[in-house]
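Morning - NDP inputs below, output right after.
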Amino acid sequence: MTMNLIDGKEIARQKRSFIAEEVEKLKKEGIIPGLAVILVGNNPASKTYVTNKERTCRELGMHSVLIELDEDVSEQVLLEKVMELNADPDIHGILVQMPLPKHISEIKVIETISPDKDVDGFHPVNIGRMMTGQDAFLPCTPYGVIEMLDFINADISGKHVVVVGRSNIVGKPAGQLFLNKNATVTYCHSKSTDLMQYTRQADILVAAVGKVNLITKDHVKEGAIVIDVGMNRNNEGKLCGDVDFDNVKEVASYITPVPGGVGPMTITMLMFNTLKAAKSIRNK
Ligand code: NDP
């Protein structure tokens, strides 16, 4: 089988250059797309994500604001901050970095973000719009997956897509986006028995679990497209996905690497959503 690598870095680079051009056009109309990111506490992984988002914003000519709050900030203060940003005309997108400390309700925070500024696509209004096939902010990681498949001109309609993982931010919306594109979708999760019997039927297999080497060559049908969303550290501390890349590439027609696959697309789609939010104020 000739395996083709889906180069997420390159696809992200091209998409970002398009976004940067659109930002320049908007600036000529006096609109600078603005993203506000709220970080609560000092989680090092969250800090890295937030720094990357800020840097990418700047690289694309967008306005970015970082609001850092103490780990013990009250839920009320955080909600008030979100409401302040909802009303701020210079801010088009709001993102609250998850996870939040235990004393704060994540769903309450998500529901407080205006659906028009919900560039993560986590608000129930945007989820509902996505489910009913309406225009919506799509969650960035599944959106990035679809963009990668569009880039390689993958035919999704009528294909059997198996999504392993059913989280609200990755697995569930990924399956929904494939359904919207007329795929037949199967979800697998931790209670699925005999995972392999499902994954072996997949024309497109999406792994979004968080377990090193969960998907082996035996899980994959010859010629399948394999998308690895997982981001894990192996025993040597190296970043890797859920898929046993070296062996699965022998049977897959296309495969995403980790790093350099889905990861770069996630931040890119966040920027794209922020651009979309900024453009939408022209119609108000
Ligand atoms: P969650 O932990 O929220 O969800 C994991 C899912 O995997 C759950 O639905 C769980 O099932 C399922 N699962 C666990 N064990 C198994 C198993 N043995 N067989 C089948 N399914 C199983 O993770 P996320 O969805 O947030 O993230 C998934 C992975 O993607 C992580 O590695 C994360 O780091 C990565 N990620 C990468 C991003 C990127 O930009 N590349 C962005 C976001 C996440 P159940 O529901 O039954 O518990």
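Note: The mean pLDDT is 97.

O.
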